[in-house]
Amino acid sequence: MVGKKAISFILICTMACSFLSCGKTKSQSNAKIYYRNTDKTGIVAVDCSFEQPNVKGKIEEALDLLQKDTDSTEYMATIPTNVSIDDYKIEGGNVSLFFSGDYDSLDVYTEIMVRSAIVKTLTQIKGVNSVTFFLDGAPIVDSAGETLGAMTADSFIFDFGQETESLIPKELTLYFVSSDGVSLVAEHRKVYYSRTLKLANVVINELKKGPTDSKDLSSPLPEGTELLNISPLENGVCNVYFNETIESCPSGFENVLIYSIVNSLIDNDTSIKQVQIFVNSETPTFINVDADLSAPLDRNEDIIDDSYNNLDEHGLYQIEDDSDFEYEEE
């Protein structure tokens, strides 16, 4: 479970007890905790009474409640279990929250829900005017790569449905490295992304996050690989520029690395017919690649492992062969 370095054991126990005070009638409550609804389509305000008298105590109490399981069929914890708040600071009316874990793996839709609910919950506390988010010590950026900075309740439209009208839903087909290390397996993933982003950028960002549905698959991109630029051309060729870290790919994995990028871009963006990859502005120096990297590349069907039929609606892999298949839960 999540933890916070700045919160004492006594306060944690006190806040655990105070959770029972949430959900009271309006006449009994002095605050609201904003949770994600169980449909994962919006946020829900639940009446609550803070037990702590001062600003710091109320902040700690609110953060604890935002992370706790609710035992409700209508709403759930705002902060996912794979995201941690390690610390917080309050200065001049601004609360800085320091996250760790998989915050950057949240899809755009969920991230907006989480951020909106946290900010709305904390800024109702007298003495808290704004909230700033940090991940691993660095300011959190939005889906367009811009630093979010200090946010107030006015940073979000009250009707959450309107808040996400500018997001585009997209079912992506992403190619990750199979357990044999020489082939690719397709994974379907639904994402929501800002209209200000190019779809090609979204595809690469999702590849960097790695697979979400199977421990057998892995991301082809070495840790620390950064996308520098993507420039689609009128003739259907997409030029993709990475930093030099991409060349640290282990020997023997070069083909799956290259075609994970190429196949994923071509399969998801109909405007892209071929892909050329650059390291900074130069041709990559990969050795074990069965292609001419100085020229644009076509989609490679032969490298795809079709023995997996992706995930079904239950989140299970269907393995196809000449006999009856079985479902294996990861």
Structure notes:
Strand 6 (130-135) and strand 7 form a beta hairpin. Helix 1 packs across helix 2 and helix 5 (199-209) packs across helix 6. A 4-stranded mixed β-sheet has the order 4-5-6-7. Strands 2-1-3 form a 3-stranded antiparallel β-sheet. A 3-stranded mixed β-sheet has the order 10-11-12, covered by helices on one side. The longest helix has 16 residues, at 108-123. The protein has 330 residues and is of the alpha+beta class. Residues 1-21, 24-28, 157-163 and 310-330 have low confidence and may be disordered. It has 2 domains: 9-163, no CATH class; 167-319, no CATH class. It is built from 6 helices and 15 strands. The two termini are 21 Å apart.
Distance between the termini: 21 Å
Helix/strand-derived category reads: alpha+beta
Count the beta strands. 15
What does the main sheet amount to?
A: 4 strands, mixed
Main-sheet strand order equals 4-5-6-7
Indicate how many domains the architecture comprises.
2
Q: What is the average of the pLDDT values?
A: 79
What percentage of residues falls in helices of 4 or more residues? Answer: 10-25%
| Series of H and E elements | HEEHEEEHEEHEEHEEHEEEE
Provide the low-confidence segments as ranges: 1-21, 24-28, 157-163, 310-330
**What is the 3D form?**
elongated
Q: How much of the polypeptide forms β-strand, as a percent range? A: 25-35%
Instruction: Give the C-alpha Rg.
Output: 23 Å
Number of helices: 6
